[in-house]
Amino acid sequence: MASKMETLWRQAAKFSSRWSHNWGFSAKNFEELQSAINEIRAEDVGIDDMKLLRVRLGFAPIFNMDIYQDPDFTVSVFLLKEGSTMPLHDHPQMHGLLKVICGTVSVKTYSLEDTQQHDNFQLGDYVQATVHEPVICDQDSNAMVLTPTDKNLHEITCLQGPAAFLDILSPPYDGNEYYMGERPCTFFQPLERVSSNRVNLRIIKAPHDFYTKQIEYSGVPLGYS
């Protein structure tokens, strides 16, 4: 019988395959992927008290656990120390799912007014975005969804931790279905409100205090055997 992670991997591969994308976006496959990720718990990815203690006592604000990567999608886990923040960043032309599996986080999301700007970002430029209501997520919350146009930018703060979330991105940052090179990750600084639900953002360098440290994955290996 397949483990929950193996089932998740198969559904992610089904949704993310460039062969399936030739037929266009499949809402059914994406819904099935959401259902699969909502079943995942901390123990399914090998997170135990020792790993959480390592995060709590470590110097890095955020730890990263790489689980699987191919040209179509990535599966990983991020572990955040209490009080740490993953700064506001984007996912250009990517679909993503974020499932908290332990701890509690606050997620702030934004949608760019002009999604085509992803191709022309320059440091210091200003862009406008729609602001969505912040969401508090814990292990009982369903996965948050980002698409190429909706809630594509997000900032994640650990309120009670260490916190961990499982992250699936398709396609990955380091490639796309057209083999046109790496997708850049751009960071943003919120500025003044333009209206009640719109804000100006300034493109910035990655904050100097943002860095991650690798932690090993000890769950079920994923991929074709």
TrEMBL record:
Coiled coil: none annotated. Keywords: Iron, Metal-binding, Oxidoreductase. One of its GO terms (molecular function) is oxidoreductase activity, acting on single donors with incorporation of molecular oxygen, incorporation of two atoms of oxygen. One of its GO terms (cellular component) is mitochondrion. This is 2-aminoethanethiol dioxygenase. InterPro entries: PCO/ADO, RmlC-like_jellyroll, RmlC_Cupin_sf. Pfam families: PCO_ADO. It comes from the Eukaryota. The keyword Oxidoreductase applies.
